[in-house]
Design goal:
It is built from 26 helices and 22 strands. Strands 12, 13, 14, 15, 16, 17 and 18 form a 7-stranded antiparallel beta sheet that branches. Helix 2 runs antiparallel to helix 3, helix 14 packs across helix 15 and helix 18 crosses helix 19. The N terminus is likely disordered. It starts with a helix and ends with a helix. The chain has 5 domains: about 55 residues, Orthogonal Bundle (Helix Hairpins); about 220 residues, DNA ligase/mRNA capping enzyme (D-amino Acid Aminotransferase, Chain A, domain 1, 2-Layer Sandwich), CATH 3.30.470; about 100 residues, OB fold (Dihydrolipoamide Acetyltransferase, E2P) (Beta Barrel); about 150 residues, 5' to 3' exonuclease, C-terminal subdomain (DNA polymerase, domain 1, Orthogonal Bundle); about 80 residues, Rossmann fold (3-Layer(aba) Sandwich). By secondary structure, it is of the alpha+beta class. Strand 4 and strand 5 form a beta hairpin. It is about 35% helix and about 20% strand. The chain binds 2-(butylsulfanyl)adenosine. 2-(butylsulfanyl)adenosine (IVH) binds next to strand 3, strand 8 and strand 11.
Length: about 675
């Protein structure tokens, strides 16, 4: 932050350029190298500063600014793009024999010594990225290999893709865009919760996400990328190993699990290793790609029309197990969607024993005609979520009857509704205890109010013992009540009460997220808190007010406004205020100043006046607040300090009149911490 103070202009273009360079480096360290050097809150603070500068000087906005990743406008479609060189595909091998055959063929096509470069086959979508003089200009899908689609706006939202390279080079690179297993799981859980269709696997989810017409949706779904080829660098005789190292040097994310071997026997060992290890990786792989490493040898071996002859994809066998459905359980989620789960005879599948599988929703169950007692084939979607693929009809008992779907909520008994535009059944009773319970679990969860030890099982216990109904009841819990619960002694009950008490002092964004407003995830909650600062202001905001925030569109804004209009919300906020739950944004920038109390500004009431040279008032205000000062608009007997710039008028007069301490900007600067 020192740069802000040293520059003589209030915001120079260079200052902003430096800020962009820093933010892009932090992103690179976080997303590409996986080793961040700044905290999230420091990043957020600098990002907001950049937004402020860009708002003041829109003519300075650069295409590689991190604020340019997510566009505001909806896309109308995807233009066609002709690839300069065709995007080839790979020949497949399904077993050792086919790999040995590949090895023989390779060695017969060249007399050069052969080394194999082995890589993971990422299960996503091939993409081509183009850079002109180091600047990212276009992303395209593979399409039919000759003509693809322009997906630049959506690809830009992927943080691991550099908007500017380390060198001003013109280059095309190719790789795989994929959805990490964790994002896939979260996305399907959210789809289920919304009563919407689920995605079959991360590849489909990534494809749907890249073809979404709203880049904001793409940004929210957290795709990632590994680059593995470059038609431009191919002209420079790099081996595959060197090529990937070169891509890495340029700032691209490459997969680290690669190796070079002299023999197919070693390649087979690598395959064996990753066949076992694949389930532990955070992304799905569907095989191993084996490439001849040396570029001269590649040229000699050559290409077919569809694929290089010098490479092959070993595909893992599909992992499927057969078992029997013994029961179907229905659970009610936070928003009332009722989800069926198959309880099955336990079976080993893709690295673990599986006894339950989501059946997702009533429509899917009907389409697959799933019945209790059926033998079914299951697999793991995205390598993690056990799923029923199909029923083995030959093994179906002649006594089998179609499944009878529930008509009443399994928890509160109210009638279930099948909404027109949804695939799920829904319990629409807002006071259904199951929904209240799920909301409490969400409220207490780590990214929300972060109430330590109040997880799913504790919340269940509290409900069973009738100690709570709604969220506010948490703040009225008494130790003697808690101690009547199983596994709850003096120490653990004290700990829980302390954690509940501590949650009252959380910053606004945690509470906002914890309320479980539809479409408001942790990051939207952060944006709202940063913009409005207090719950009351958010509650009073209009759809238009909310939509002025970059990153929040109409659907989210409408959902927020509707939430705050509900009587239940008003009541809940009123109750939470009464028990003193904090409803203001606590600036996380203050995290950075561990020695805040040492600052002369700590707990001072400060007024800024006149024209400042080194800052805008807004910026200085933010800095002072981060140091624990309260910055107000008018001078009174409560004012401790006035910082006066050039041409200060009435406020300066008043300060002199009241005998309030007055500093000029230089004095203030000297007291701001240098980092
Ligand atoms: S090389 C000319 N390397 O697999 C070489 N492809 O089945 C073309 N894929 O279309 C591809 N991981 O989408 C290569 N490490 C990797 C890969 C990979 C995934 C995909 C790619 C390709 C498909 C072929």
């Amino acid at each position: 932050m020192e740069r802000n103070l040293e520059l003589k202009e209030k915001y120079s273009k260079q200052q902003m350029d430096q800020l962009i360079a820093d933010l892009n480096r932090y992103s690179y360290e976080y997303y590409v190298l996986d080793s961040p050097t700044v905290t999230d809150s420091e990043y957020d603070q600098l990002y907001r500063l950049l937004q402020t500068i860009e708002k003041e000087h829109p003519q300075w906005i650069r295409p590689d600014s991190p604020t340019q990743r997510v566009g505001d406008t909806l896309l109308s479609g995807f233009a066609k793009v002709q690839h300069e060189k065709p995007m080839l595909s790979l020949e497949n091998a399904f077993n050792e024999e086919e790999l040995m055959e590949f090895d023989r063929r390779i060695r017969s096509l060249t007399s050069r010594p052969i080394q194999y470069h082995v890589e993971l086959k990422i299960d996503g979508l091939a993409v081509s990225l183009k850079y002109e003089e180091g600047q990212f200009v276009q992303a395209a899908t593979r399409g039919d290999g000759t003509i693809g689609e322009d997906i630049t706006a959506n690809v830009k939202t992927i943080q691991a893709i550099p908007l500017r390279l380390q060198k001003p080079q013109s280059i095309e690179v190719r790789g795989e865009i994929y959805m990490p297993k964790a994002s896939f799981k979260l996305l399907n859980e959210m789809q289920e919760e919304k009563g919407q269709n689920i995605f079959a696997n991360p590849r489909n989810a990534a494809a749907g996400t890249l073809r979404n017409l709203d880049p904001k949706v793409t940004a929210a779904r957290k795709l990632n990328v590994f680059l593995y080829a470059s038609p431009t660098l191919d002209e420079q005789d790099f081996s595959q190993y060197e090529l990937l190292s070169e891509l890495k040097k340029l700032g691209f994310r490459i997969n680290p699990e690669r190796a070079v071997y002299d023999t197919m026997a070693e390649v087979l060992k690598y395959i064996e290793k990753y066949t076992a290890k694949r389930h532990e990786l955070p992304y799905e792989i569907d095989g191993i790609v084996i490439k001849v490493n040396d570029s001269k040898a590649q040229e000699e071996i050559g290409y077919t029309v569809k694929a290089p002859r010098w490479a092959i994809a070993y595909k893992f066998p599909a992992e499927v197990a057969k078992t029997r459905i013994v029961q179907v359980e229905w659970t009610v989620g936070r928003t009332g969607v009722v989800t069926p789960t198959a309880v099955m005879e336990p079976v080993f599948l893709a690295g673990s024993t599986v006894a339950r599988a989501s059946l997702h929703n009533v429509d899917l169950m009907k389409a697959r005609d799933i019945r209790i007692g059926d033998y079914v084939y299951i697999h793991k979607a995205g390598d993690i979520i056990p799923e029923v693929i199909r029923v083995d009809l030959e093994d179906r008992s002649i006594h089998s009857r179609p499944y009878t779907f529930p008509v009443a909520c399994p928890v509160c008994g109210s009638e279930l509704v099948h909404m027109e535009d949804e695939v799920a059944l829904r319990c629409v009773n807002p006071n259904c205890p199951a929904q209240l319970r799920e909301r409490m679990i969400h409220f207490a969860s780590r990214d929300a109010m972060n109430i330590d030890t109040l997880g799913e099982s504790r919340v269940n216990q509290l409900y069973k013992a009738n100690l709570v109904k709604g969220i506010t009841d948490l703040y009225h819990l008494k130790q003697h009540d808690l101690m009547t619960l199983d596994r709850m002694g003096e120490k653990s009950s004290e700990k829980l009460l302390e954690a509940i008490e501590a949650s009252k002092h959380n910053s606004l964004e945690r509470l906002l997220f914890g309320l479980g407003i539809r479409h408001v995830g942790a990051s939207t909650a952060k944006l709202l808190a940063a913009e409005f600062k207090t719950m009351d202001r958010i509650a009073a905001a209009t759809v238009e007010d909310i939509m002025t925030i970059e990153g929040i569109g109409a659907i989210i804004a409408e959902s927020i406004v509707a939430f705050f209009q509900m009587q239940e919300t008003k009541q809940l906020l009123h109750e939470l205020k009464q028990v003193h739950v904090n409803m203001t944004m606590i600036d996380r920038f203050s995290d950075l100043h561990e020695h805040q109390a040492d600052s002369p500004f700590h707990e001072l009431t400060v007024v800024l006046t006149g024209k400042l040279e080194h800052f805008t008032r807004k910026e200085l205000k933010a800095r002072l607040e981060a140091l624990g000062a309260k910055v107000t608009g008018s001078v009174s007997s409560q004012t401790d300090l006035v910082i006066a710039g050039a041409k200060a008028g009435n406020k300066l007069d008043k300060a002199q009149e009241l005998g309030v301490e007055i500093w000029n900007e230089e004095q203030a600067l000297q007291h701001l911490p240098k980092e």
